[in-house]
Protein: Translational regulator CsrA
Amino acid sequence: MLVLSRQRDESIIIGDNVVVTIVDVRGDKVRLGIEAPIEIPVHRQEVYEAIQRENRKAAEMKPEDTEGLPKQ
Structure:
């Protein structure tokens, strides 16, 4: 892991097209601004983990598990 010190309004660049900027620091909280191309998803870790859990559950479903669900 690379550990950097940054102050408010300073940024780091990841690759050629992701910019992370320190927006604000209040006590033990840091607000980050993230600029990335639309094709690069950006999620908080807990949201990402929830998405992965739901994707695993969906991949394990059998056709009979969907009986009774409305058809679109």
Q: What stands out?
A: Residues 21 and 68 are 48 Å apart (CA to CA).
